């Protein structure tokens, strides 16, 4: 009787320590080591993957709050590994759509190896000529048509894409970021019509009036707080605010109050939140559009790579003070 | 040469005195008397009307602020009559679409007689079997389809219609108002599924959770402030907030900050402001729908009538403390 050999291996993990109330510090996690079987348990249908790179995203901060929200945005469990998007290689599979050696992206753990139970949220990567880590970020963007577009946090993972899409659509695009270096990137690499460093503007309202004398048609909201309040003052009639994130608020237990919501009435503004996973069915169409643009150099995508799982927590903390230039990614393994 | 006789008549007027900063008091106006010609001046194309009833609407408070907004919501001019919606009878006309004796509704002055320059915003009233003053209010409502509907300020001019439309569409409707008498009206006259007195709820969040254990699909926003903040906590995924007004804020120079806007992201909520005049082209269709409903008694419309122009300012002030039950109207003349 040939018993199947169970291969166990050491697995470094980044565990979530405990709920966070205010600012994120990198001691919210501890690194530990366990063993993991590289075989998918019999009777189950998942895959075991080797994680190659992991995504650092602002929403992860919110999962560190104690909350009762179910599902995708439920709180992390103290003592369990952080989870998030990642790119990984299949080591063993009982999923009929995936085989050993396939590259996938989806939700995985902050660890070297992860057993992923059957889920719809694991995608096979078909095009490996684009750096793999792009898959951790580029899918999140959602372009909107329009004329005068303002993008905040514009050198971040999502912001950098939004502005470029808007430019490709023939929009007037002005973006803001938090350093001269980033502003330079926005102007000269991404080719926006203009860009400014919000940290150097004493009067954000005046800044917006300078760049948008006729007002803003579309605001792509990544920041929240004061920025949202002044944007409301500067929207045009029938302006739209696509709410992707409010990173300025995530480290605050008491959120800033937004006072200019009455502008919504008189200007008939539409404010709408969205999450990438409502658009997963359009993902292949998105790739059809985006991959040629990247290959032909018509679109740039900038990453900020942290090397090694150990540097993960600090990298995640860094995005809340604008440490990253481009999408923050953690490189766990090279293949 | 038969000179045309110019008929001049005394014209009582309610003049806007000066900009208001905080709470509205009825001394924001003064009553005065001038003379007016009952003939449309030669070379112009307007109409002279005798005002029959005038509408008291919350947005009028905002026109008493000093502001630089142009157009429909521009500030009132100190020393000039208050303007607003009204129903009036044509006394003289050089407008080819209107003749002496026609009943019209549109923007008119708080005075006995008004010369109205040519404008698109004057509508001939074709159906006089519905009380005329209904025209000052009923056109503003805009029903939305959906399941679980919450209406605030639900016994006011707009709120009372919204909930009834939602009921006719088969929605579950819960509404709130500020007195037992109003709540009774909402439950027993309008037939809502439930209603509550928000002034008696110490914990609005708990109240909403009681009436909407599964959350709110559509919130029809008339109030703003705290109510909006707790509604955001209680919306369902893909909830919609139709923003019609924020009456709780109009008397405040510093508006309350809304803190729960992050809910918009995770629940993909759409918040959208609207103004009736974007829908004027649909007005005849609206009448086709609503007039039979009123005639057949399937829809109620409650008015709070103040008698006489002199009582206008106090009636307008009253709506900000919930003094009115139903739409507040000023009866200026009976015909």
Automatic annotation (TrEMBL), chains A, B:
Domain Alcohol dehydrogenase-like C-terminal: 158-284
InterPro entries, A to Z: ADH-like_C (IPR013149), ADH_N_2 (IPR041694), GroES-like_sf (IPR011032), MDR_fam (IPR045010), NAD(P)-bd_dom_sf (IPR036291)
Domain of life: Eukaryota
Keyword Secreted attributed: no
Keywords associated with the record: Oxidoreductase
Any GO molecular function: 2-alkenal reductase [NAD(P)H] activity
Pfam families: ADH_N_2 (PF16884), ADH_zinc_N (PF00107)
Signal peptide: none
Residue ranges of every copy of the Oxidoreductase N-terminal domain listed in the record: 40-119
Official protein name in the record: 2-alkenal reductase (NADP(+)-dependent)-like isoform X1
Organism: Nicotiana sylvestris (Wood tobacco)
Gene: LOC104212462
């Amino acid at each position: 009787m040939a018993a199947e050999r169970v291969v166990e291996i050491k697995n470094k993990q980044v565990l979530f320590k405990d709920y966070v109330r205010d600012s994120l510090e990198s001691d919210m996690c501890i690194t530990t080591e366990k063993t993991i079987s590289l075989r998918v348990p019999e009777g189950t249908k998942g895959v075991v993957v080797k994680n190659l790179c992991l995504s650092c995203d602002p929403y992860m901060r919110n999962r560190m709050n104690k909350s009762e929200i179910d599902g995708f945005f439920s709180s992390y469990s103290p003592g369990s590994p952080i989870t998030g998007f990642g790119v990984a290689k299949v080591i063993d599979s009982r999923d009929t759509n995936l085989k050993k050696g396939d590259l996938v992206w989806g939700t995985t753990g902050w660890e070297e190896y992860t057993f992923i139970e059957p889920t719809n949220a694991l995608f096979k990567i078909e095009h490996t000529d684009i750096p793999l880590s792009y898959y951790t970020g580029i899918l999140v963007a959602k372009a909107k048509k329009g004329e005068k577009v303002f993008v905040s946090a514009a050198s971040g993972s999502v912001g950098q894409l939004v502005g470029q899409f808007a430019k490709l659509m023939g929009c007037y695009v002005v973006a803001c970021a938090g350093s001269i270096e980033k502003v330079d990137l926005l102007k000269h690499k991404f080719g926006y019509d203009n860009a400014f460093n919000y940290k150097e503007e004493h009067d954000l309202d005046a800044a917006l009036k300078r760049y948008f004398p006729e007002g803003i048609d579309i605001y792509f909201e990544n920041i929240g707080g004061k920025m949202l309040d002044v944007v409301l003052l500067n929207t045009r009639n029938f302006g739209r605010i696509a709410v992707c994130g409010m990173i300025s608020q995530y480290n605050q237990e008491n959120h800033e109050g937004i006072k200019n919501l009455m502008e919504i009435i008189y200007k008939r503004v539409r404010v709408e939140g969205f999450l990438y996973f409502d658009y997963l069915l359009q993902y292949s169409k998105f790739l059809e559009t985006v991959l040629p643009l990247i290959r032909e150099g018509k679109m740039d995508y900038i990453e900020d790579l942290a090397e090694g799982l150990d540097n993960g927590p600090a990298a995640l903390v860094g995005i809340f003070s604008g440490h990253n230039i481009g999408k923050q990614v953690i490189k766990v393994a090279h293949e």
